[in-house]
Amino acid sequence: MRSATSMTDALKRQASIAALDEIRSGMIVGLGTGSTVAHFIRELGARVAAGLKIAGIPTSEESRRLAEQVGVPLTSFKEHPVIDVTVDGADEVSPALDLIKGLGGALVREKIVAHASKRVVIVVDETKLVDKLGIKTVIPVEVIPLAADRVVLQLKDWGGEVRIREKDGQWFISDNGNVILDWKHGIIEQPASLEKQVKLVTGVVDSGIFAGVAQRVIVAGASGIRSLERKN
User: Fold this and answer.
1) Is 68 an annotated catalytic residue?
2) d(CA 190, CA 134)
3) For residue 231, pLDDT beyond 90
């Protein structure tokens, strides 16, 4: 019998392979971050080796390294300021296809790439689907290190618990040289409004709330693959 971890990993791979249907030769592709999208990048590398002509813009140094390892050509916003499609993961997905992202620490670059994209496709396993954002996970908030303690006080004033993310006993530092606050806010009734509210705090770079960004969410579950499309 396979372990729950291996079964979940298999579901992630299924969702990632389904996302390859979005990719055509000549496209500029945003490369998300995380364990699910790692499968997508590897599969994309295999397609490139077979003749697919694309170029990728990674959302993290981790994704950059993996893309280089598997032979996915990379480009930049200087050469290609508009991305055709971005494929990324998520930590929570609401019925309206609003997202919480950033438990991997790449939320700012992920948001930059997403907002530069004509189309954003999210790949998840079914455990990431929630009735409302905030039910399961924290909201990651990336902040300038100098402002960290001040922003902690502001978020606490709005309610919930906040901690500065640590790794190996030290503050976790993002690819951008910033720190991440993990805000246990609870249920988010109005994701778009809260996203704007947090963004306005001095010292905040951005939050892990991605409201109105995803056009499609590919969900892998025990009963197979299903696709959720944003309703306009």
Assistant:
1) no
2) 11
3) no
For residue 229, being part of any structural domain is answered with no
Distance of CA 119 to the CA centre of its chain: 14
Domain hosting 159: range is 139-206
- For residues 153 and 170, give the distance between their C-alpha atoms in angstroms, rounded to a whole number: 20
User: How many angstroms separate the CA atoms of 137 and 208, rounded?
Assistant: 11
Look at phi and psi of residue 65 and say left if phi exceeds 0, alpha if psi is from -120 to 50, else beta: alpha
For the cut 70, the answer to whether the pLDDT of residue 218 exceeds it is yes
pTM: 0.94
SS3 call for 173: strand
- Residue 42 resides in a domain: yes
Place of tokens 């720190």: 179
* Amino acid symbol at 105: G
Percentage above 70 pLDDT, the chain: 97
**pLDDT tens for residues 124-140?**
999 999 999 999 999 99
Catalytic: which of 62, 92, 110, 195? Answer: 110
Residues 70 and 84 in one domain: yes
